[in-house]
């Protein structure tokens, strides 16, 4: 029995890009390109007529841009959408906005086109997107107040929080950090993301969060009220202790991709299990495949507390499931409850350290 192919509609105002993307995707036996469209209006009609499984959508288009059209899709007919963004400052900002609205993933449109090679990885992105669980825009999950004491002293020892996410992670991380108080424990985030987007992503998280969110840099000292985001590219985000006081610092480690990713969630979690074995909280959120599962298990075995996002609220219940299946997740929770749970665990850690 042959599995049904994933039907794809390509939306881009450039006939060259539409043609190259079509050619690239048609080489993959898992995918069927059912149509193309040059404008949002054409795309609307094609969606009604063709009912594609996945749409690729250009970020910057004339008349109605991709963001405006995406917002309409998520409100009226939610479906998996992969954004295609130019590598401009405006393009990367719009791409992150798209991920926040509900796009499953965003791929970079190369500045110099080299035939169908320019879209060599697009088919795998489409396949990941097809398995995503899409919520209608406006279906907000319940927000609970953070449980950490608002008067918690910055001098008290808070545990390190390490968070890993992939597909669907932009929206999830925004919701998670909105529930963190200004004096949250030092937090590290590895989100699978192209290098071009990570700086703007950290800036966006900082805009919506009470703690200070910034891109991790080599030897950044972990401090209360700061959240460090792994820069995409050729390095993994790890931590280690340094100096006579044993301060925790960020390390950006050159290395091969792990589980197909760089930065890798496993690399972050493994480093935390070594540097802060009994003084950490690990969180694994929505994402495809299994990056982070073994690292989270190492954290739990070392004495850390571990949480995983549940299936119902995950865009893709891949990474959390892989971690849960091997016993790495101490407790699964809906996304809206993870932030408060982290703060409650942090408060309990700190109380144990007061003698």
TrEMBL record:
SMART domains: REC. Residues 7-124 form the Response regulatory domain. The modification 4-aspartylphosphate is found at residue 58. Gene3D superfamilies: 3.40.50.2300, Methylesterase CheB, C-terminal domain. PROSITE patterns: CHEB, RESPONSE_REGULATORY. It is found in: Cytoplasm. InterPro entries: CheB-like, CheB_C, CheY-like_superfamily, Sig_transdc_resp-reg_Me-estase, Sig_transdc_resp-reg_receiver. One of its GO terms (cellular component) is cytoplasm. The active site is at 166, 192, 291. Contains a C-terminal catalytic domain, and an N-terminal region which modulates catalytic activity. PANTHER family: PROTEIN-GLUTAMATE METHYLESTERASE/PROTEIN-GLUTAMINE GLUTAMINASE (PTHR42872), PROTEIN-GLUTAMATE METHYLESTERASE_PROTEIN-GLUTAMINE GLUTAMINASE (PTHR42872:SF6). This is Protein-glutamate methylesterase/protein-glutamine glutaminase. It comes from Gluconobacter wancherniae NBRC 103581. The gene is cheB.
């Amino acid at each position: 029995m042959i599995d049904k192919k994933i039907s794809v509609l390509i939306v881009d105002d450039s006939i060259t890009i539409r043609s190259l993307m079509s050619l690239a995707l048609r080489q993959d036996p898992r995918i069927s390109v059912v149509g193309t469209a040059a404008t949002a209006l054409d795309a609307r009609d094609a969606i009604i007529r063709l009912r594609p499984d996945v749409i690729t959508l250009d970020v910057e288009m004339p008349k109605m841009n991709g963001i405006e059209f995406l917002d309409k899709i998520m409100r009226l007919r939610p479906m998996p959408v992969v954004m295609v963004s130019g590598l401009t400052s405006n393009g990367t900002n719009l791409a992150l906005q798209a991920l926040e609205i509900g796009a499953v993933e965003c791929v970079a449109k190369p500045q110099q086109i080299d035939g169908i090679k320019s879209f060599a990885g697009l088919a795998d992105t489409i396949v990941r997107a097809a398995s995503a669980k899409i919520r209608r825009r406006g279906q907000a999950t319940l927000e609970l107040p953070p449980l950490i004491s608002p008067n918690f002293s910055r001098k008290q020892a808070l545990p390190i929080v390490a968070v890993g996410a992939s597909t669907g992670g932009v929206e999830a991380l925004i919701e998670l950090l909105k529930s963190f108080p200004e004096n949250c424990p030092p937090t590290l985030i590895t989100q699978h993301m192209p290098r071009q987007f990570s700086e703007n992503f950290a800036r966006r998280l900082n805009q919506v969060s009470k703690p200070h969110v910034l891109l991790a840099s080599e030897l950044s000292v972990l401090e209360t009220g700061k959240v460090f985001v792994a820069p995409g590219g050729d390095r993994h985000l790890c931590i280690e202790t340094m100096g006579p006081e044993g301060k925790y610092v960020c390390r950006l480690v050159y290395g091969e991709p792990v589980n197909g990713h760089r930065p890798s969630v496993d690399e972050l979690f493994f480093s935390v299990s070594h540097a802060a074995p009994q003084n950490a909280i690990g969180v694994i959120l929505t994402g495809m495949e299994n990056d982070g599962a073994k690292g989270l298990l190492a954290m739990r075995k070392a004495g850390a507390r571990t949480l995983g996002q549940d299936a119902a609220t995950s865009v893709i219940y891949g990474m959390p499931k892989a971690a849960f299946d091997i016993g790495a997740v101490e407790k699964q929770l809906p996304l809206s409850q993870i932030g408060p749970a982290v703060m409650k665990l942090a408060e309990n850690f700190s109380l144990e350290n007061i003698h």
